[in-house]
């Protein structure tokens, strides 16, 4: 026997059809198709929002678990008076591993969700405290040498102006003191120009619990622990925000908000065309290594690959982590743009992740059709002579991968228009 919901839909459809028969003959066919398309899109959008919320919760749950594992390693490491090089390298490996799950969550940005909507996270915008970039390296060096380090002090400093002479790119508004890249800098140190390895100015001797809290190495250990604990707390906030079992979570509001689907399309377009395929990728066209998104660890290829993987998850409605999600994907809602976007996501994933020097088991075997060079060596070929492979890889990145990411944004603009939604170029860096 049909359910009440089915009968309701049939009755509604009947009303639509009756209405269409009243239209003028020359317009009835096109108008009826348009009305039916809109009638059919609503349940599909509902199914997609359900899958989206499930992936968000599971992805943030995995990211939180990975940061907990990183923090546990940091806690043990920073408790040692004389940590070993192998112990430092192990912490670096855990940083890299934790990045993989976090980066897949970046596709949720700019969609009025908890990651960058302070109204949903107790008045605090979390993203600038988690993954803001570029870093104010001078602040970190100064506070370790001459400052007093407290957990709240690091959080407060993140919102302040950077010190004169240490501002990245001369931008006096930036003072990034916590988050993924602060931890990265504490572990690897600066990646000097023309240094074709990760940053190597920091060794295990730069960390200790000996000689009191005024010692620079002791303060580096304290800074590292506090920054990791802060990152852990913020990941927990995001996990809880998407937890459907919590009555105070964002999920029910998200699924009942008629603007959620529009917000998602706009958010992914802005992330693809503004952040990921915009500032982050176009910033390295001049060959400057310090413009890499993860310049201290040379983890940038993984940054870009897992950003693409995050969109891939939503496009297909699937997620593989500690739990597997299989549901309704964005691909079913994008009409004629679906196959176009699918091809460009595949292009955006053309990175061979072979930069893991701390744990070689993370390296992949590479072939010539994808970017296999070290990212900093590859982009440096703009200014210096590189190998044939490095030059070829730069061309793949510059003329295939980066344009593909921006074309995703343009395709989403066109897709949104079919739903009567206008996505302008605000926040996009389209070439």
UniProtKB/TrEMBL annotation:
One Gene Ontology cellular component: cell envelope
Tree of life domain: Bacteria
Keyword annotations: Signal
Annotated localization: Cell envelope
The keyword Signal belongs to this UniProt entry's keyword annotation: yes
Domain Imelysin-like: 57-347
InterPro entries assigned: Imelysin-like, Imelysin_sf
Official protein name in the record: Imelysin
